Amino acid sequence: MNSLYLLIAIFIPTVCGLLTLRLKFADDHALHVYIEGVALVTSVLVWVLLFCVPGDPVILYEFEDRFTLQIGLDHLGKLYAGLVSVMWPVVLLYAFSYMEHDRRQRSFFAFYIMTYGAALGACFSSNMLTLFFFFEMLSFSTIPLVAHHQDHESMHAARIYAAYLFGCATLGLAAVIVVTLYGKTGHFIYGGDLAGVQVPQWIQVIYLFGFFGLGVKAAVFPFHKWLPEASVAPAPVTALLHAVAVVNTGVFAVIRLTYFVIGPDFLRGSWVQAVCILTASFTLVYAAIIALRERHIKRRLAYSTVSNLSYMLFGVMLLSPAGLVAGTAHLVFHSITKMTLFLCIGSFMHHTHKEYLSDVNGAGKHMPWTFVFYTISALSLLGVPLLCGFVSKWRLLTAGAEEGSVPALIGLASLILSAFLCAIYGLSVSARAFFPVNEVDRFAGQGRIDEGGWRMLGPLCFFTALEVWFGLFPGPLLQFIGTIVQGM
Length: 488
Hints:
The chain is built from 19 helices and two strands. Strand 1 and strand 2 (67-71) form a beta hairpin. A two-stranded antiparallel ribbon has the order 1-2. The protein has helices at 2-20, 28-50, 75-98, 105-124, 128-146, 152-182, 203-215, 226-229, 235-262, 264-267, 271-293, 297-317, 321-352, 363-366, 368-382, 388-403, 406-434, 454-472, 475-485; strands spanning 58-64, 67-71. By secondary structure, it is mostly helical. Helix content is 73%, strand content 2%.
């Protein structure tokens, strides 16, 4: 019975989002109340389900044999569902303030809330076919958000976004079909649905198709270009979707394919594992270098996201319990940290109409709280102790050292180099904000610059507090992630 409530949780934001396009609202405030109400009801239902004893998976539709659309809830699904269900209602408050004067709020919030349903569908999927279905639904529902401004730059970014995500989807679909055909049950089993099954060695090539076809959402090289291009979208989209929901779904899908379908034993020590680790290692250094060179602030953060997503993939592809714990922990902690960074920069751009690094000079004096929150988050992203970023990055380093293979050691060196670059491209923004270059204040004589009301500062404070909390007390969350690794 619990699994039927999972379907309701998916339907509420999806159906209500569609209705938003048709319903009549007295004013924007009524629209905001409606959307926030939908998000809160959905999140409350999700959290009730997280603490319930999971029921048997429910088949929504059966094509033939093991090809079914099926939903259920295990510990990995609970972790990801808990993450997105906390973030959506909070970021919506920020979005209401950010989009206050936008003329297309109705369509924006309609698609914004529909993506919540698609993300939950991915969390609740019980097999690769269902996950792939919601994986693509997430792509479809986010294209209008990338193209929201409907100018040349936005439409161009939306075309690139669609080309990468749907083009690479063919690789992912090929992997989904093949692994479903060869699997024992056709649904997720920790240790691999293919474990113990005699499969040909060319399945390793099929896994590689899946790694890149599903990893496109995780912006793995060379399929990373869409993410910086998509940064033209409004800040709430860039923060919640393209720094958390969409990209994390890519990592989430790779974890499912690796540990719950193929099985780590089949890949451990193979050339495919080496290719994946080296690709992730190259991506995280390459993207960090580009981020350092990038002058546009949102694009700089976008390349930083590309880099940190490959931190997660590196941990996952170590194919060890320690690596999986580290990669999954970084998925959670990076989400919180990068969310805060994007929201801070979005607030700065919204109130100053400035978007380049040189424009930040002196902004800390006029928007102190915004840039205090930004600085704490930048330190977390760097991996400073007592903040959550340190916890996951330290575990990634130790997991790589324990693995000890040549690809793992190359990845280890890449992590250290990327962290050094992260310190420069992340904290240079704070340095300019509080200690302007040549003491030039870009905003001198312009009067007071509004930081935004509680709807903007509240989410920034909330996510910054989470960074500190998980930095000081990461134990319970890491213990929960450990239950995933133990197959419980």
